[in-house]
Amino acid sequence: MTQQSMPLSGAQAGIWFAQRLDPGNPVYNAADRIDIHGPLRVDTFERALERCLAEAEPLRLRFTDEPAQYLPEYDSLRGCLTVVDLRGEPDPETAAREWMAADLRTPVDVVTGRLSRHALLRLTGEHHVWYLRAHHILIDAYALSMLVSRTAGIYTALADGLTPGAGPFGSMAPVLAEEEAYRASGRYARDRAYWLDRLGGAPAPAGLRRRGSACSLCGSPRPHAFLLPRAPSRPPVSTARRAC
Q1: Which residue, 117, 144, 146, 155, is the most exposed by fewest CB within 10 angstroms?
Q2: Residue 55's closest CA among 143, 177, 142?
Q3: Closest by alpha carbon to 26, among 104, 132, 133?
Q4: Nearest alpha carbon to residue 35 among 132, 129, 151, 153
Q5: Is residue 186 part of a domain?
Q6: Pick from 33, 52, 45: nearest CA to 129
Q7: How far is residue 208 from each of residues 28, 31, 143, 144, measured CA to CA in Å?
Q8: Of 169, 164, 110, 118, which is closest to residue 142 (Cα–Cα)?
Q9: Is 14 exposed, middle or buried, given 0-12, 13-18 or 19+ CB atoms closer than 10 A?
């Protein structure tokens, strides 16, 4: 059966063209680091992550050689989590930072590459680091925070023997339909006329010719933190989000 192709949103199209013009640039990689302190059930965490990713349609999107996207008919989420044991390293924290930095610096092809990745780095028996990286064509920083919160909620429910509630994620189809309707509306025509007038006399837009060096990577992680009630099913969690 042929995959049903969908157009890109305006934001996605800009990233698609930019990455295709400069495929060796990792600047569109976005990542979060989540420090989990306490007794973590790794198998339960992996189940929670798989369920969350199954709900989050944007993270399952694939892209083609033309500016288009589609949802695979079958996309197994089993094995989506890489577990890395760093307890034997002389300095597990430094080893974790180097591992994450190397992954974040790796360019990702938007057509053939691995657009998202999840790893659980084990520093001690009760200190794990959840590293999640996604290409900006899939998701932004706010959506990454939603992914973290949803996975934590599913984990808590599963660990307590409960059924997780409904997730917050929607489908791409309504988003694309809303953008298409806007572009066909009188409001879009008025907005376009306004900005053409407002920017009259501005320098000519830059062309697509590649020039200069690749953009630099995002800055160092920006610390954020939250604590969950300390119990076997709810280990305290602190986060450090990369400022992308």
Answers
A1: 146
A2: 143
A3: 104
A4: 129
A5: no
A6: 33
A7: 18, 27, 29, 30
A8: 169
A9: middle
Mark residue 201 as left, alpha or beta (left: phi above 0; alpha: psi -120 to 50; beta: remaining).
Answer: left
pTM beyond 0.70, yes or no: yes
Cβ(125)–Cβ(37) below 8 Å? no
Domain of 43 in residue numbering reads as 19-169+220-242
CATH number for the domain that contains residue 129? 3.30.559.10
- For residue 134, pLDDT over 90 is answered with yes
CB of 58 closer than 8 Å to CB of 30: no
Residue type, position 153, single letter: G
Mean of per-residue pLDDT scores for the chain: 85
For the residues 120-137, what does the mean pLDDT come to?
A: 95
